[in-house]
Amino acid sequence: MSSLPEKIIRPEILGLSAYHVPPAKGMTKLDAMENPYSLPASLREEITRIVADVPINRYPDPFAIELKDTLRTALSIPSGMDILLGNGSDEIIQIILLATTKPGAKLLTVEPGFAMFKMIALFANIEYLGIPLRSDFSLDLDAILATIRHEQPAVIFLAYPNNPSGNLFDAEALEAIIKASPGLVVVDEAYHPFAGKSFLEKLADYPNLLVMRTLSKLGLAGLRLGLVAGRREWLSNLEKLRLPYNIGVITQLVAAKVMQHYDILEQQAGTIKQARARLSTSLAAMTGIEVFPSDANFILFRIGNASQIFESLKQRGILIKNLDNSHPLLKNCLRVTVGTHDENALFCKTLHDLINHN
Ligand SMILES: *Cc1c(COP(=O)(O)O)cnc(C)c1O
């Protein structure tokens, strides 16, 4: 006999295990691509005053006009292009897939890639196609183009740089995909602050392209704000699925204030990029570690007994991400977020000790 929820809830939802977020209290947290730095005291004081005066009894501006203006300027959104805001870019992925799911519609992406593409495809009930990357995590362009011809996907999502591998895909290959696609192509630039390269300027060239950004990796993960930029023909339709007050009043006001000081976040991203280079060199110097090149604020590396190393690090108070067994190409792979100088040094020292005592 099955219980009522088991009869009513969709079987593919019953089959899911809840998204696992490991407890991190008191740990050195290098698992979630967060910016480790806080804002200058003067800016935090300004935020305190803004929050004190927030009319939380009122609904927020449903169109977030001021925030959108600030974002357009700070992120240099090309004129003539619209933007749509989401409660994190995860919500934008959901909006896009809810708008495009219909019988026979398919989503194409690459694996290993961002886990939420597959997860939200399942929520939205759109068929999922995950094309394997090559072993160096580059695009298998022939396989992708063949699948596009054969399956005619309604939507393609590609993260640029990719998560969890950290690399930027070849821009020409990406353009070939956009040109070959019969549907929408969304370039997810969550790690743009650490990469420099962008498809934003290509929006004018390709009518089937959207570019997605988030403030999460930049230093505002707690506010939950993402955006997608593109032509009005797309965004006016996606707007219809956006729930009226999806961006809360505190997020609107605080994000606008911080983005007026975008130079501070850019400077922090610059510091993180320098630390990434040092961390990468330190890891590569350790015996038995293969380090993959990164254009993001994290580093993927391969090490013997990865799962055991991950557990030992955790016991010593350092939380990174274990990707061993998550995909055949990620055998024995771990992902570490670039932290502060001290956090990176502690991580390296602890890892070095673990390797030498095994
Ligand atoms: C972290 C991440 C996101 C999600 O960002 P939010 O705005 O916090 O929802 C989107 N895409 C990729 C590739 C990411 O790694």
Short description:
With 358 residues, this protein is an alpha/beta fold. It has helices at 4-8, 11-14, 41-52, 65-74, 89-100, 115-124, 141-151, 171-180, 216-220, 232-239, 249-259, 262-284, 306-315, 341-357, and strands at 28-29, 82-86, 106-111, 127-132, 155-159, 184-188, 209-214, 226-230, 289-291, 298-303, 318-319, 321-322, 333-337. The chain has a seven-stranded mixed β-sheet, with helices on both faces. Strands 9-10-13-12 form a four-stranded antiparallel β-sheet, covered by helices on one side. A two-stranded parallel sheet has the order 1-11.
Question: Could you walk me through the main structural features you see in this protein, from its secondary elements to its overall organization?
Answer:
The protein folds into two domains: 4-40 and 264-357, Aspartate Aminotransferase, domain 1; 55-261, Aspartate Aminotransferase, domain 2, CATH 3.40.640.10. Helix content is 41%, strand content 16%. The protein is built from 14 helices and 13 strands. It is globular, with a radius of gyration of 21 Å. The mean pLDDT is 97. Pyridoxal-5'-phosphate binds next to helix 5. This is Histidinol-phosphate aminotransferase. Its EC number is 2.6.1.9. It catalyses: L-histidinol phosphate + 2-oxoglutarate = 3-(imidazol-4-yl)-2-oxopropyl phosphate + L-glutamate.
CATH topology of the largest domain, anyone?
Answer: Aspartate Aminotransferase, domain 2
Structural class: alpha/beta
CATH class group of the largest domain: Alpha Beta
Task: Look at the structure and name the CATH superfamily of the largest domain.
Answer: Type I PLP-dependent aspartate aminotransferase-like (Major domain)
Radius of gyration: 21 Å
- Ligands present: pyridoxal-5'-phosphate
Count of all domains: 2
Determine the N-to-C terminus distance: 50 Å
Series of secondary-structure elements, N-terminal to C-terminal: HHEHHEHEHEHEHEEHEHHHEEHEEEH
